[in-house]
Amino acid sequence: MLKPLGDRVIIETEKEEEKSVGGIVLADNAKKKPQAGTVVAVGDGRVLDNGTKVAPVVKKGDKVMFDKYAGTEIEDNDQTYLVLHEKDIVAIVE
C-alpha cells in the first residue's frame, strides 16, 4: 500500500453510476467526477513555520467529501486512488 507524506491523504473514490436515470449507458467523459470517498491512508500531518507538527483531522476509514478538481489520480494494484492535501477535504460524512 502507498504511504502518503506530510498532510496528504489517499482516498478511494466512490464509483459513479454507469447508467443515467432513464437507463442510458454513460460514456466515461460524460460522467461527473466523484466528490466523495473513503480515506485509506493518512500522512503524519503538516509542519508549521515554527517547526511544530499539526496532526491530521481525518483518519483511515472516514467517509469524506472533497473539492471537485482536487488531487492527483494514481493506480496501485489495478485500483484507482486520489491523493490530495487534507485542506482539499471539505467535510467528513457521519
TrEMBL record:
Single GO cellular component term: cytoplasm
Alphabetized UniProt keyword annotations: Chaperone, Cytoplasm
PROSITE patterns for this protein: CHAPERONINS_CPN10
Function: Together with the chaperonin GroEL, plays an essential role in assisting protein folding. The GroEL-GroES system forms a nano-cage that allows encapsulation of the non-native substrate proteins and provides a physical environment optimized to promote and accelerate protein folding. GroES binds to the apical surface of the GroEL ring, thereby capping the opening of the GroEL channel.
Gene behind the chain: groES
Listed Pfam families: Cpn10
CDD domains: cpn10
Family: Belongs to the GroES chaperonin family.
Native species: Lentilactobacillus buchneri DSM 20057
Chief location category: cytoplasm
Name the UniProt record assigns to this protein: Co-chaperonin GroES
Subunit-structure text: Heptamer of 7 subunits arranged in a ring. Interacts with the chaperonin GroEL.
